[in-house]
C-alpha cells in the first residue's frame, strides 16, 4: 500500500484490516506474537519499537528515503487486530523493519548495529517456530481473497455443495503440501547470512577485497575470452540474492561462494597478490562451513518437537 504522509513527523501504517480484505488468526501467528513479545525485552529493539519521529530525531529526510515505514508496535497492533492472513505477511513486516534500518543508517552506526543484532535474535527465535502447517484458529473468518490458494469455507458457494467430503480432505492436504518449509528455510538462511557476514568483516578487508566488485576482474583477468557477464558474483550480488531468497539451502550458498573463488583462481592466476588473498579467504570458508553445518543440524533437531505437535494437530482436524 502507498505510504501515508507524515503527521507531526510520524507515519503510522494502518493496523486495522480493510473491510473487503479481513485477516485471520492462525496457530503460527500466535507463536509470532510470542516472539514479538520477547523482542520487546531486548535492549537492541528500543530503536524499532515505535514509528520513527523525524522531528524528535532531527532526520527530516527519513521518509523521503524510507518508502514503507514499519515498527514493532505496529506489528503488535496488527497481530492483535487479525490484520494478517498468514505468517508470510507478518514476516514481511519484520523484514521491512530491518531493510529500512539498513537503507537509511550507515553501516557501523549505533542504530544499524542494533538492527543487525535484533535481526539475528529474531531469526534465532523464529527458527524454533514450526511454520510447516499453518491452520486458522477457531473464531476467525477467512479473507475474501489472498495471494495464496486457501480453502474457501463459504457455505454460499453452490459449486462446492455437491463435492464429497473426501475431496475436501484432499484439498487441505494439497494446500499444506504447497506451504514452504519455513522452519528449515529460516534456519539455513540465518546461517547463510552469518557466513556472508563472517567473510566480509572489516578485519578481513585485506583478503576479501577481490570480491568487492566484479568490475575489478576486468582489469586483472588474464584470459580475455572470458565473458564477465556470464558469472557476475561479488559480495553485493550475493547479499542481494540472499535477501531475494534465491538460494535453496546453506549448501547451495556455499557452492556459489566456492565457485566464485574457483573462478578467481582460474582466470586471475597471474596476479599473485590477488590469488594469495583468495586462498586465505577460502581457508576461512572451509574452517567455518563445518561449524555452521553442525549448528544447522542442532537447531533443526531442537525444533523437531514443534513439527511433530503441529503435524498431530493437523491430522486430528482431517
Automatic annotation (TrEMBL):
Keywords, ordered alphabetically: Bromodomain
One Pfam family it belongs to: Bromodomain
Matching InterPro entries: Bromo_chromatin_reader, Bromodomain, Bromodomain-like_sf, Bromodomain_CS
GO cellular component, one term: chromatin
GO biological process, alphabetically ordered: chromatin remodeling; regulation of DNA-templated transcription
Species, as recorded: Drosophila rubida
Domain Bromo: 40-112
Entry-linked PROSITE patterns: BROMODOMAIN_1, BROMODOMAIN_2
Protein name (database record): Bromo domain-containing protein
